[in-house]
Structure formats: structure tokens, C-alpha cells
Amino acid sequence: MDVDTTLALFDRQMRKEARPDPAPARVERTGEVVRQVGPGELWNGVLWSGLDEAGTGADQAIARQVAEYRAQPGVESFEWKLYSHDRPADLGDRLAAAGFVADDTEALMVAEAADVAALAAPLPEGVELLPVTDTAGVEPVAAVHDEAFAVGTGARIRARLLAQLAAAPESLVVLLAMAGDRPVCAARMDFAEGTDFAGLWGGGTVAEWRGRGIYRALVAHRARVAVERGYRYLFVDASDQSRPILARLGFVQLATTTPYEYRLR
């Protein structure tokens, strides 16, 4: 994989020319900034800023986003999704000075979907993979997130999945791994129509079931679905925990990304 070429394609398709999450979310372009706006628990944030190396107008662009998001009814916070190659180089410092709070930095990792789909990745004995298509299935997914990541994350995932399944069920695949009646892992894949990229999200495994190949199996399964739908690449914002697993599956790091959150209310 040519890292520079693939990163440029990702920037163009997934950031500069971003498609919104399902309605009522929308993508707006204000000057050099591309952002998504949506009510309730839908994701709100800046995807692309297009600022120059000198930072001309950067502080004004940041202030404008704060003011315009503040005017959005029902939006309590938004995120400025900063990538390591974004300009100016001190954009993170400028965001922090404006009141944004940085979360953990993750690795933007990409792989050829066909390569990952060809991997042998069986589920452990006694574990079954189930598709999630309705409210009843979303509840155990939210429970896995609360247990695998942090209490409280499940509520946001629940709201987002319910909205997306209701508005555009074809835009995602949600999977739940069950060991008997125990939900042990959950993951989803989002499809950006008209692009080469399918995004892998979640992949949370409860503590006592880690290290048994479930995460790997869910990645390979989603890769096969992506290939069937005509997507060339898989991308992941990978944590420190998942990055080495993904590297062994053939994913290549293109950049890092850090979410900067601004609380509006």
C-alpha cells in the first residue's frame, strides 16, 4: 500500500467530500471547514479544516465553529477531529486554548478489504455471531460497550444505532457475538456510499473473553461483507489495545487522530 496516496484518497473522500450520517444529520461547509451537524445523540463535529501552515484565520475559524454549533438546538457538544498531518502544526494547541479538551489519540489504520477477508479467523467453540437489525438486538450491544469500554458509552451507542437503523439500515452492519446467552463482543461497520472506504467501529470484547480470537473473527467477517458490497478499503481509528491486532491482520497506519471535544452546555 502506498501510504501517501491512500491517505490523500481518504482525506478527499471521507473528509473533504464527506457524506453525512443518515438523516437528519447533514454535512455543512463553512469556509475551509467541513462539519457534520445532527440532533440528539448523533455525532457532531469538524471533519476537515483545510487551514494553511501559517495558521491564517485558524483562531477565527475555531471561534466560528463554536458560535455556530452553540446556535444549533439540542447539540450539547461537538468534536474537532484532528489528524496528525492537519495544518497548522499547532492546531491542537489552538483548540486547547479555545476550550477544547483532547481525548486519547488513536491510529488511523487502513487495509485492503479483500486481503483481510481471505484470512482464516474462526470463532471460538460455543460462540455464535448474530446480526443486529432491531431494538432488541441493540440493547445487548449497548451492554457490551458499557462493559468492554466504560459505563455510559452504551447509551450513546444505543441512540446512534437506533437512529441509523431506523433511517438507513443499509448504511451499516451491526454484529453481536454470543456465548450461549452471554453477549461477549459487539462491532459495527459503516458504509460511505460512493467512496472506497468502509469504517470499522466498536469491536469491544468483555474482559474474560479477550484473547480468544473473537475480535479478529469480527474484523474478517466485516471485511467479507465489505468486499461483497464493492468496497476496496477498511479503515479503523485504532486504540493502543487494538492496533497490534490490526497490524497482524495487515492494517497499515496512515496517521494518528485525536478528538478534541467542546462542551457547549
From TrEMBL:
SUPFAM superfamilies: Acyl-CoA N-acyltransferases (Nat) (SSF55729). Residues 127-265 form the N-acetyltransferase domain. One of its GO terms (molecular function) is acyltransferase activity, transferring groups other than amino-acyl groups. It comes from the Bacteria. InterPro entries: Acyl_CoA_acyltransferase (IPR016181), GNAT_dom (IPR000182). This is N-acetyltransferase domain-containing protein. It comes from Streptacidiphilus jiangxiensis.
